[in-house]
UniProtKB/TrEMBL annotation:
It comes from the Bacteria. This is DUF1697 domain-containing protein. InterPro entries: DUF1697 (IPR012545). Pfam families: DUF1697. It comes from Streptomyces chengmaiensis. Signal peptide: none annotated. PANTHER family: BLL4334 PROTEIN, DUF1697 DOMAIN-CONTAINING PROTEIN. The lineage of its organism: Bacteria, Bacillati, Actinomycetota, Actinomycetes, Kitasatosporales.
């Protein structure tokens, strides 16, 4: 059975470093045997179809292929369309009434212990808020990610040891879910 996936590459094409042209990323995915390959924006979002049902293996395969092609390490998370729709459905914030830049999802490579977030005092960052979901951290950031003190605090490596994390704004999450829709 073929599954539609989104690949989320972390930290590429930001500030002129770690350049990965989207056409080249599509070539890499096709060379791995994936079909219906596409990209979205220039910030490391790709969609593809695969016979594999193993997201971790797909992530590792893509990480190696990107390193082989471009010469640098890039963390990648691969998530199926069903998972992306579940993330949208589980959003604890009123997404329909917010601007896309106000709501973000940080995708995590694995489930994390909520106790790991204990060093971040939610009251200290109001009106910014966060909620932990299934391998996802939802962020409500009224002024956006760029100026967020909460996002900065949550990005500390000590909070999520050994966990790959990459964030996308709500508009991108919704678009990737649409692009991975099997219908």
């Amino acid at each position: 059975m073929t599954t539609r996936y989104a690949a989320l590459l972390r930290g590429i094409n930001v500030g002129g470093r770690r350049k990965v042209p989207m056409a080249a990323l599509r070539e890499v995915l096709a060379s791995l045997g994936h079909t219906d390959v596409g990209t979205y924006l220039q910030s490391g979002n790709a969609v593809f179809s695969s016979e594999s049902a193993d997201e971790q293996a797909l992530s590792a395969e893509l990480e190696k292929a990107v390193e082989d092609r471009f010469g640098f390490d890039v963390d990648c998370l691969v998530r199926g369309g069903d998972y992306l729709r579940a993330v949208i459905d589980a959003c604890p914030f009123p997404a329909a009434s917010l601007e896309g830049k106000q709501l973000h999802v940080t995708f995590l490579s694995e489930a994390v212990d909520p106790a790991g977030l204990a060093p971040v005092d939610p009251q200290a960052f109001l009106p910014e808020e966060f909620r932990l979901g299934d391998r996802a951290l939802y962020l409500y950031l009224p002024e956006g990610m760029g100026r967020s003190k909460l996002a900065e605090a949550l990005a500390r490596p000590s909070l999520f040891k050994e966990v790959t994390a990459t964030s996308r704004n709500w508009n991108t999450v919704v678009k990737l879910a649409e692009l991975t829709d099997a219908d």
